[in-house]
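Task 17 of the worksheet. Students: predict the tertiary structure of the chain below and write it out as structure tokens. Keep your answer in the requested format; marks are given for formatting as well as content.
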Amino acid sequence: MPPGDLAKTASAMRTALIGRPMVRFDAPRLIGPVPQAGRMVEVVETYGKHLEVMWDDGLVLDTHLRGRSAWHVYRQGAPWRRSWEKLRASIQTDDFVAVCFDAPTVETYRQPDRRRHPGLGRLGPDLCSSSVDLREAVDLLLAYPDPEARLRDAMVDHHVMQGVGNVYRCEALWAAELSPWTHIADLTHHDAVLIVNTAAKMVRANSGRVRRSTTRHTKDGLAVYGRRGQACIRCHDTIESQSVGRDGRMLYWCPGCQVRLDRRQPTEVREMDPHPAAAKYLNELPWRARDAG
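Model answer:
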């Protein structure tokens, strides 16, 4: 597959798959663990003749495209341009299906993460299990080796807690009104209990579900994840997103109401602006309203 065509295909796959729950995965010759329905595709990248797809739990699908190998993207129900017998992998959402044809190698692996290496200590409690003691996760979070690490990163470190993933990271931070840029050193015990319990509640409530839901107030059941550019259901500010970490996962948050423990806020608010309209705007900011109350 020519590099130019591969780049166009990857772009089409990002549009069709990223931020949408996967409803089915097929790969008759797959080597490695099977991606699970309900997971969200977060990254589609190419290098050389390889195309990789990464889900929100860190599982990566690698396809080596040689000769007539190719990925196609179809709307659900549209006819395929190649036969079913040529299928090597398919990723389906409600609206689209991405199909890999004739790839000689289709393999999955876990995203490497130095912090998750077994030699660096045992894993933290799995929040999916109702029998685990959440106090252990709270203690591990507060005792994180790097006090200046961001809370968003510690939440998906399996040495602190397991089962969170990127979707619940974004949703739990929003529910707790905590900034993704919070430093571990700034957390109180109450904050740590809040974020661990919030994440555990979300993970357990969605156990076994194909479609994850953390709120009843949006069509897709999520408060911030995948909703870049839309209005926050709590403060009506515009939801933002940014690629973070070595694996480039998209972080979603609301800059209007997720401001607690954000060291950046004082430098971002222009206190010196004397214009009446600017003063009115500053006084109506959500965190100003809370302080005034």
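Marker's comment: The CA atoms of residues 159 and 236 lie 35 Å apart. Helices lie at 3-17, 134-142, 151-154, 165-175, 189-205, 265-268, 276-283, 286-292.
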